[in-house]
Amino acid sequence: MRSTFLGFLIAPIIIYLALTDAIPNVVILFNVIGILVVVGGTVSAGIMTYGVKEISSLAAISLKVVVRPKINEQKIISEIIRMSGQLEKNPEMVSTFLNEDIHPFLKDGLRLLDNGFSGDDINEILNNDVEKRYDRHMAEVELLKTLSKYPPAFGMIGTVIGLIGLMNSMSTQGDAMNSMIGPSMAIALLTTLYGLILANYFFVPLSDNLLHRLYHEINVRKMIIEGVVLMQKKCDPIYIREYLVVNLKPDARKQIVVGLA
User: Fold this and answer.
1) Does the reported pTM lie above 0.85?
2) pLDDT digits (tens, 9 = 90+) for 245-256
3) To 10 degrees, the CA torsion angle through 117, 118, 122, 128?
Protein backbone atom coordinates (compact mmCIF):
# COMPACT_ATOMS: atom_id res chain seq x y z
CA MET A 1 0.00 0.00 0.00
CA ARG A 2 2.83 2.40 0.87
CA SER A 3 4.61 1.80 -2.44
CA THR A 4 1.34 2.49 -4.28
CA PHE A 5 0.89 5.80 -2.47
CA LEU A 6 4.52 6.67 -3.15
CA GLY A 7 4.07 6.03 -6.85
CA PHE A 8 0.94 8.18 -6.98
CA LEU A 9 2.78 11.01 -5.24
CA ILE A 10 5.99 11.00 -7.28
CA ALA A 11 4.40 11.33 -10.73
CA PRO A 12 2.33 14.49 -9.95
CA ILE A 13 5.36 16.14 -8.37
CA ILE A 14 7.51 15.45 -11.44
CA ILE A 15 4.78 16.65 -13.81
CA TYR A 16 4.18 19.78 -11.74
CA LEU A 17 7.88 20.68 -11.62
CA ALA A 18 8.23 20.17 -15.37
CA LEU A 19 5.18 22.28 -16.13
CA THR A 20 6.09 25.13 -13.78
CA ASP A 21 9.57 25.21 -15.29
CA ALA A 22 8.19 25.42 -18.83
CA ILE A 23 5.09 27.55 -18.13
CA PRO A 24 5.23 30.50 -15.72
CA ASN A 25 1.44 30.75 -15.46
CA VAL A 26 0.19 27.24 -14.69
CA VAL A 27 -3.40 28.48 -14.51
CA ILE A 28 -3.67 28.18 -18.28
CA LEU A 29 -3.25 24.40 -17.90
CA PHE A 30 -6.77 24.08 -16.52
CA ASN A 31 -9.34 24.12 -19.28
CA VAL A 32 -12.79 22.91 -18.27
CA ILE A 33 -13.95 22.16 -21.81
CA GLY A 34 -10.79 20.19 -22.55
CA ILE A 35 -11.23 18.13 -19.39
CA LEU A 36 -14.85 17.44 -20.30
CA VAL A 37 -13.85 16.30 -23.79
CA VAL A 38 -11.26 13.83 -22.49
CA VAL A 39 -13.00 12.55 -19.35
CA GLY A 40 -16.52 12.67 -20.79
CA GLY A 41 -15.40 11.04 -24.03
CA THR A 42 -13.58 8.28 -22.16
CA VAL A 43 -16.59 7.57 -19.96
CA SER A 44 -19.01 7.56 -22.90
CA ALA A 45 -16.77 5.23 -24.92
CA GLY A 46 -16.45 2.97 -21.89
CA ILE A 47 -20.23 2.84 -21.48
CA MET A 48 -20.62 1.91 -25.14
CA THR A 49 -18.05 -0.85 -24.69
CA TYR A 50 -18.98 -2.31 -21.30
CA GLY A 51 -22.24 -0.74 -20.19
CA VAL A 52 -23.16 1.57 -17.32
CA LYS A 53 -22.90 -1.07 -14.58
CA GLU A 54 -19.28 -2.00 -15.32
CA ILE A 55 -18.15 1.61 -15.71
CA SER A 56 -19.87 2.62 -12.47
CA SER A 57 -17.77 0.00 -10.68
CA LEU A 58 -14.55 1.73 -11.81
CA ALA A 59 -14.13 3.56 -8.50
CA ALA A 60 -14.46 0.32 -6.53
CA ILE A 61 -11.94 -1.39 -8.81
CA SER A 62 -9.49 1.49 -8.36
CA LEU A 63 -9.81 1.36 -4.58
CA LYS A 64 -8.60 -2.25 -4.58
CA VAL A 65 -5.12 -0.99 -5.40
CA VAL A 66 -5.10 1.12 -2.23
CA VAL A 67 -7.14 -0.76 0.36
CA ARG A 68 -6.36 -4.40 -0.43
CA PRO A 69 -4.09 -5.68 2.37
CA LYS A 70 -0.75 -7.28 1.62
CA ILE A 71 -0.72 -11.08 1.83
CA ASN A 72 1.76 -12.58 4.28
CA GLU A 73 2.78 -15.97 2.88
CA GLN A 74 5.05 -16.71 5.83
CA LYS A 75 2.16 -16.32 8.25
CA ILE A 76 -0.09 -18.55 6.14
CA ILE A 77 2.52 -21.32 5.93
CA SER A 78 3.16 -21.07 9.67
CA GLU A 79 -0.57 -21.39 10.35
CA ILE A 80 -0.87 -24.45 8.10
CA ILE A 81 2.08 -26.14 9.80
CA ARG A 82 0.73 -25.33 13.27
CA MET A 83 -2.72 -26.64 12.39
CA SER A 84 -1.35 -29.84 10.86
CA GLY A 85 0.61 -30.51 14.06
CA GLN A 86 -2.47 -29.99 16.21
CA LEU A 87 -4.60 -32.17 13.94
CA GLU A 88 -2.12 -35.01 14.40
CA LYS A 89 -2.98 -35.00 18.09
CA ASN A 90 -6.69 -34.19 17.75
CA PRO A 91 -8.40 -34.49 14.32
CA GLU A 92 -11.56 -32.88 15.74
CA MET A 93 -9.85 -29.49 16.09
CA VAL A 94 -10.63 -28.45 12.50
CA SER A 95 -13.87 -26.78 13.56
CA THR A 96 -12.03 -24.63 16.10
CA PHE A 97 -9.65 -23.34 13.40
CA LEU A 98 -12.66 -21.90 11.54
CA ASN A 99 -13.12 -19.36 14.34
CA GLU A 100 -9.58 -18.03 14.03
CA ASP A 101 -8.51 -14.90 12.16
CA ILE A 102 -6.92 -16.57 9.13
CA HIS A 103 -6.88 -16.10 5.37
CA PRO A 104 -10.48 -16.49 4.04
CA PHE A 105 -9.40 -19.01 1.41
CA LEU A 106 -7.63 -21.12 4.03
CA LYS A 107 -10.83 -21.02 6.04
CA ASP A 108 -12.74 -22.29 2.98
CA GLY A 109 -10.31 -25.18 2.67
CA LEU A 110 -10.63 -26.05 6.37
CA ARG A 111 -14.41 -26.00 6.05
CA LEU A 112 -14.20 -28.59 3.29
CA LEU A 113 -11.78 -30.58 5.41
CA ASP A 114 -14.18 -30.39 8.36
CA ASN A 115 -17.01 -31.66 6.15
CA GLY A 116 -15.07 -34.80 5.29
CA PHE A 117 -14.24 -34.12 1.63
CA SER A 118 -11.46 -36.17 0.07
CA GLY A 119 -8.17 -34.66 -1.03
CA ASP A 120 -9.18 -34.88 -4.69
CA ASP A 121 -12.51 -33.20 -4.02
CA ILE A 122 -10.87 -30.42 -2.03
CA ASN A 123 -8.33 -29.88 -4.79
CA GLU A 124 -11.03 -29.77 -7.47
CA ILE A 125 -13.38 -27.43 -5.59
CA LEU A 126 -10.71 -24.96 -4.51
CA ASN A 127 -9.01 -24.91 -7.91
CA ASN A 128 -12.39 -24.18 -9.49
CA ASP A 129 -12.73 -21.25 -7.09
CA VAL A 130 -9.27 -20.01 -8.10
CA GLU A 131 -10.08 -20.22 -11.81
CA LYS A 132 -13.34 -18.32 -11.42
CA ARG A 133 -11.65 -15.68 -9.30
CA TYR A 134 -8.93 -15.29 -11.92
CA ASP A 135 -11.55 -14.79 -14.64
CA ARG A 136 -13.42 -12.16 -12.60
CA HIS A 137 -10.33 -10.15 -11.79
CA MET A 138 -8.91 -10.43 -15.30
CA ALA A 139 -12.15 -8.85 -16.52
CA GLU A 140 -11.38 -5.86 -14.27
CA VAL A 141 -7.82 -5.66 -15.58
CA GLU A 142 -9.08 -5.78 -19.17
CA LEU A 143 -11.59 -3.03 -18.38
CA LEU A 144 -8.80 -0.69 -17.25
CA LYS A 145 -6.54 -1.64 -20.16
CA THR A 146 -9.34 -0.94 -22.63
CA LEU A 147 -10.18 2.40 -21.04
CA SER A 148 -6.51 3.41 -21.24
CA LYS A 149 -6.83 3.55 -25.05
CA TYR A 150 -9.55 6.22 -25.04
CA PRO A 151 -8.06 9.30 -23.27
CA PRO A 152 -5.22 9.87 -25.79
CA ALA A 153 -7.71 9.47 -28.65
CA PHE A 154 -10.16 11.99 -27.20
CA GLY A 155 -7.22 14.23 -26.36
CA MET A 156 -6.34 14.30 -30.05
CA ILE A 157 -9.97 14.96 -30.93
CA GLY A 158 -9.95 17.96 -28.58
CA THR A 159 -6.71 19.19 -30.11
CA VAL A 160 -8.09 18.91 -33.65
CA ILE A 161 -11.23 20.79 -32.61
CA GLY A 162 -9.06 23.53 -31.08
CA LEU A 163 -6.94 23.76 -34.23
CA ILE A 164 -10.02 23.99 -36.43
CA GLY A 165 -11.27 26.88 -34.30
CA LEU A 166 -7.83 28.50 -34.45
CA MET A 167 -7.61 28.26 -38.24
CA ASN A 168 -11.12 29.57 -38.62
CA SER A 169 -10.28 32.61 -36.46
CA MET A 170 -7.13 33.24 -38.47
CA SER A 171 -9.09 33.29 -41.71
CA THR A 172 -11.64 35.77 -40.39
CA GLN A 173 -9.42 38.08 -38.34
CA GLY A 174 -6.28 38.09 -40.49
CA ASP A 175 -3.12 39.74 -39.09
CA ALA A 176 -4.80 40.64 -35.80
CA MET A 177 -4.75 36.96 -34.95
CA ASN A 178 -0.99 36.45 -35.34
CA SER A 179 -0.20 37.47 -31.75
CA MET A 180 -2.76 34.96 -30.46
CA ILE A 181 -1.51 31.93 -32.37
CA GLY A 182 0.92 30.81 -29.64
CA PRO A 183 -1.54 30.94 -26.73
CA SER A 184 -4.33 29.44 -28.82
CA MET A 185 -2.10 26.55 -29.92
CA ALA A 186 -1.17 25.92 -26.27
CA ILE A 187 -4.84 25.66 -25.31
CA ALA A 188 -5.54 23.37 -28.27
CA LEU A 189 -2.77 21.01 -27.16
CA LEU A 190 -4.03 20.83 -23.59
CA THR A 191 -6.49 18.02 -24.34
CA THR A 192 -3.65 15.88 -25.68
CA LEU A 193 -1.84 16.47 -22.39
CA TYR A 194 -4.95 15.54 -20.41
CA GLY A 195 -5.38 12.35 -22.40
CA LEU A 196 -1.78 11.25 -21.98
CA ILE A 197 -1.82 11.92 -18.23
CA LEU A 198 -5.13 10.13 -17.68
CA ALA A 199 -4.04 7.07 -19.66
CA ASN A 200 -0.45 6.73 -18.48
CA TYR A 201 -0.80 7.95 -14.93
CA PHE A 202 -4.14 6.39 -14.02
CA PHE A 203 -5.45 3.57 -16.21
CA VAL A 204 -2.23 1.82 -17.28
CA PRO A 205 -0.56 1.79 -13.81
CA LEU A 206 -3.81 0.67 -12.15
CA SER A 207 -4.32 -2.21 -14.58
CA ASP A 208 -0.70 -3.37 -14.24
CA ASN A 209 -0.92 -3.10 -10.45
CA LEU A 210 -4.10 -5.18 -10.34
CA LEU A 211 -2.56 -7.76 -12.68
CA HIS A 212 0.54 -8.05 -10.47
CA ARG A 213 -1.61 -8.44 -7.35
CA LEU A 214 -3.79 -11.01 -9.10
CA TYR A 215 -0.84 -13.24 -10.04
CA HIS A 216 0.49 -13.00 -6.49
CA GLU A 217 -2.89 -13.81 -4.95
CA ILE A 218 -3.47 -16.76 -7.28
CA ASN A 219 -0.07 -18.22 -6.34
CA VAL A 220 -0.87 -17.83 -2.64
CA ARG A 221 -4.22 -19.57 -3.09
CA LYS A 222 -2.60 -22.45 -4.95
CA MET A 223 -0.16 -22.76 -2.06
CA ILE A 224 -3.09 -22.89 0.37
CA ILE A 225 -4.70 -25.65 -1.71
CA GLU A 226 -1.51 -27.69 -1.48
CA GLY A 227 -1.37 -27.17 2.27
CA VAL A 228 -4.99 -28.16 2.89
CA VAL A 229 -4.68 -31.26 0.70
CA LEU A 230 -1.54 -32.31 2.60
CA MET A 231 -3.40 -31.78 5.87
CA GLN A 232 -6.22 -33.99 4.59
CA LYS A 233 -3.67 -36.69 3.79
CA LYS A 234 -2.37 -36.35 7.39
CA CYS A 235 1.18 -35.67 6.24
CA ASP A 236 3.85 -34.95 8.80
CA PRO A 237 4.12 -31.19 9.66
CA ILE A 238 7.84 -31.21 8.80
CA TYR A 239 7.04 -32.63 5.36
CA ILE A 240 4.35 -29.96 4.88
CA ARG A 241 6.82 -27.28 5.89
CA GLU A 242 9.45 -28.43 3.41
CA TYR A 243 6.81 -28.77 0.70
CA LEU A 244 5.42 -25.26 1.15
CA VAL A 245 8.53 -23.18 1.85
CA VAL A 246 9.59 -23.49 -1.80
CA ASN A 247 6.98 -20.79 -2.44
CA LEU A 248 9.08 -18.32 -0.45
CA LYS A 249 12.31 -16.50 -1.13
CA PRO A 250 15.42 -18.09 0.48
CA ASP A 251 15.59 -15.61 3.39
CA ALA A 252 11.93 -16.09 4.21
CA ARG A 253 12.35 -19.88 4.06
CA LYS A 254 15.05 -19.73 6.72
CA GLN A 255 12.75 -17.80 9.02
CA ILE A 256 10.04 -20.42 8.69
CA VAL A 257 12.49 -23.28 9.31
CA VAL A 258 14.19 -21.63 12.29
CA GLY A 259 10.90 -20.52 13.79
CA LEU A 260 9.38 -24.00 13.67
CA ALA A 261 12.40 -26.26 14.14
Assistant:
1) no
2) 988 888 877 777
3) -100
